[in-house]
Structure prediction request, 330 residues.
Amino acid sequence: MKVVLPMAGFGTRLRPLTWSKPKPLVQVAGKAILGHILDMFCDLPELEEVIFIVGFLGEQVQEYVQRTFPALHARYIEQKDLLGQSQAIWLAREHLQGPILVSFVDTLIDVDFSEETRNQKDAIAWVKRAEDPRRFGVAMVGPDGLVKRLVEKPTDVKNNLVVVGSYFFPSGVDLVRATQRQMEKGLTLGEEFYLVDAINLMLSDGLRMKAEEVTQWEDCGKPETLLHANRYLLDHGRENSDTVRPEGVVIVPPVFIDPASKVERSVIGPHVSLAAGCRVENSIIRDSIVDEKAEISHMVISDSLIGSQARLLGKYGSFLVGDSSEMRIG
Prediction:
């Protein structure tokens, strides 16, 4: 089994965080998004290698994987021209023999991949019903539970069975051939080759693809969804409030506070992640993610993403405010 992770995009919806790091390295619940992704696959009993399709700042991805997952057999392929997901798969064509898993790096799902792919002869698209599917792809499924067609970025919400961005293919060679045909036919959306079009070619040729609904799906592609993912992960076992108790600090669980951070005279939580090297003093922080080596002093912060090495320095004041007065600060 091989795992392919296309991740060459610029991550524009998470800017300014992604000006200085690729999207997979943005923090959520105590580790990079990519760390949570790799946790989903590292227990596969027959995992041969993970293929990273990298682009902007791809060297940071390689450094992170080598440092954090040193035993992982990894391969890195650069996608210089961002022509879409299918082209990313095609670039890895020489290494995609046998069964493969393809997953996009802004997708966290609760799936036992080893169980669901064991002795599996059919392809699988993991899906989840969403209130508004229009910025995703959706699966059209027949009464037999098999996918008949995939539609990328539908214009209406009639079919809300969203494809969450993880697929299993029993033959990587067949997928590569489909991406080749797609590119030869010029099947694009907005000048990009989307994977759904390659899959539709395979479905037309008789591919059997099951739609397996997941119980939980967290999209890490936008600020508001990243904060939602942070809340979910902290609520489901990724917090460490029982082991980290800085003196003089009020902790409101669930939180993740890296042991290498320093917090003084503050209230932290709920749903706060503080990465290594953070320094927080005289502040109140809730429902936020603070990246490595950020400094926060005399601030009240909520629903926020704070980038690495950012400095937020406020100032408390003492006021005498008369009756029927109004004062606004900031």
